[in-house]
Write a structure and sequence with these properties.
This protein is of the alpha+beta class and about 120 residues long. It has a single domain, classed as Alpha-Beta Complex (Sufe protein. Chain: A), CATH 3.90.1010. Helices cover about 45% and strands about 20% of the residues. Strand 2 and strand 3 form a beta hairpin. The protein has a three-stranded antiparallel β-sheet with strand order 1-2-3, with helices on one face. It is built from five helices and three strands.
């Protein structure tokens, strides 16, 4: 059996996404679309004391976007809005643990872009 195209971590999060589904009574929510491929994502947040208390996402998207949203949700839970706004794209890309073709980088960054917009 061959290794998954984007590695075990991305494959696992794509097959078993964490924090997927609606969030009851979110404090902030934002929808986003990647115009290059049509991926759609919605991020919903519950905030407490300037921190992300809970984050959930819904997506009609490729495995890279879904895995990225899943991994991102784990990275930012409990983190301050200021820290999330300052998070560099490279941090999320590194957390995926794989090299992406240039065409897939936008897929991976879509959840972070939508999260930043939701926090504005």
């Amino acid at each position: 059996m061959s290794a998954p195209l984007y590695g075990e971590l991305v494959a696992d999060h794509a097959r078993n996404p964490r924090n997927r589904g609606p969030l009851e009574a979110p404090d902030a929510a934002r929808d986003g679309v990647n115009p290059l491929c049509g991926d759609r994502i919605r991020i919903e947040l519950r905030l407490s004391g300037g921190r992300i208390e809970a984050i959930r996402f819904q997506a009609e998207a490729c495995m890279v976007t879904i895995a990225s949203a899943s991994i991102l949700s784990g990275l930012v839970t409990g983190v301050s809005k200021t820290q999330v706004q300052a998070m560099r794209d490279a941090e999320l890309l590194a957390a995926l643990g794989t090299e992406l073709r240039p065409a897939r980088v936008q897929c991976a960054l879509l959840p972070l872009q939508v999260l930043r917009e939701a926090l504005r």
